[in-house]
């Protein structure tokens, strides 16, 4: 079975459509949260995810839009986008976001937006944080988003040794690579707000029968998304950064 892992769409419909256009009709889609926030098409993105994703968990922006997190916890630009999203989202789509479980475990995979330890808020950027999180899930792999940076961490060989370090495994773009036997925490990067310096939408394909994965990047009409965000009156910083993927 093949799965497309998408995360941090941030109401960027063109980026989401570009990714789904590449994904086969038989592939299941798993979404790691932050469907909304930042962008100008929240309803359209929630509708698309509702139809296409078999599994979905919420992110911090989704929770802010349904009032589960205080908007004061966000910077001014993000808070402005959240307030606009709250006014725009339909009641059924607000209810959908409210219905999502914080984490999901399915087969060999645990799904959490930030981390298995603190699913909504914790950022796993550094190996030290990744290392501490291996104790907080039981499956072979944990899929996370939230940082908008594609990365793969592997548990140390002697996980019980206090000094054993957790490794970053190099990502091969556009090539199938084995997940391996050691436990991993894997981030597919962001569909709608990439922050690794590459503006193209980022996602991951998983082949669970072979336990292989492939990172992919897809071009999409960034200028169209920027124009839509500008027309919607969203803060310039939120759409200008799409042009350089930061
Ligand atoms: Zn996000």
Descriptive account of the structure:
With 246 residues, the chain is an alpha/beta fold. The protein has a single domain (2-243), classed as Purple Acid Phosphatase, chain A, domain 2 (4-Layer Sandwich). Helices cover 29% and strands 20% of the residues. The protein contains 8 helices and 12 strands. It has a 6-stranded mixed β-sheet. The radius of gyration is 17 Å and the shape is globular. The mean pLDDT is 94. The structure holds zinc ion. The site of zinc ion has 7 residues, from loops. Zinc ion binds at residues 8, 10, 34, 59, 61, 146, 148.
Q: What is the string of SSEs from the N terminus onward? A: EHEHEHHHEEHEEEEEEEHH
Query: What is the makeup of the main sheet?
Result: 6 strands, mixed
> Kindly, what is the distance between the CA atoms of the first and last residues, rounded to a whole number of angstroms?
33 Å
Q: In the CATH classification, which architecture applies?
A: 4-Layer Sandwich
Which structural class do the helices and strands define? alpha/beta
Shape: globular
Percentage beta strand: 15-25%
What's the CATH H-level homologous superfamily? Answer: Metallo-dependent phosphatases
Q: What is the CATH class designation?
A: Alpha Beta
Bound molecules: zinc ion
- The proportion of residues forming helix, as a percent range, comes to 25-40%
Q: In DSSP terms, counting alpha (H) and pi (I) runs of 4 or more, how many helices?
A: 8
CATH topology: Purple Acid Phosphatase, chain A, domain 2
Number of strands: 12
Radius of gyration: 17 Å
What would the average pLDDT be, to the nearest integer?
A: 94
Q: How are the strands ordered across the major sheet?
A: 3-2-1-11-12-9
Any idea how many domains?
Answer: 1
Uncertain runs:
none
């Amino acid at each position: 079975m093949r799965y497309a892992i998408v995360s941090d769409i941030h109401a960027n419909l063109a980026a989401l459509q570009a990714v789904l256009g590449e994904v086969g009709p038989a592939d299941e889609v798993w979404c790691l949260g932050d469907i909304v926030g930042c962008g100008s098409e929240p309803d359209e993105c929630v509708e698309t995810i509702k139809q296409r994703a078999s599994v979905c968990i919420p992110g911090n922006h989704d929770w802010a839009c349904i009032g589960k997190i205080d908007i004061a916890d966000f910077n001014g630009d993000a808070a402005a986008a959240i307030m606009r999203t709250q006014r725009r989202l339909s009641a059924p789509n607000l209810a959908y976001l409210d219905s999502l479980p914080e984490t999901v475990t399915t087969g060999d995979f645990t799904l959490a937006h930030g981390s298995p330890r603190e699913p909504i808020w914790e950022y796993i950027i550094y190996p030290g944080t990744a290392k501490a999180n291996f104790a907080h899930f039981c499956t072979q792999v944990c899929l996370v988003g939230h940082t908008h940076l594609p990365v793969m961490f592997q548990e140390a060989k002697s996980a019980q040794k206090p000094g054993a370090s957790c490794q970053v495994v190099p990502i091969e773009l556009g090539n199938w690579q084995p997940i391996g036997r050691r436990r991993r925490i894997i981030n597919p990067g962001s569909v709608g707000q990439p922050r690794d310096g590459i503006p193209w939408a980022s996602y991951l394909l998983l082949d669970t029968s072979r336990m292989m994965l492939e990172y992919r990047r897809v071009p999409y009409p960034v200028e169209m998304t920027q124009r839509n965000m500008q027309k919607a009156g969203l803060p310039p910083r939120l759409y200008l950064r799409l042009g350089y993927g930061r």
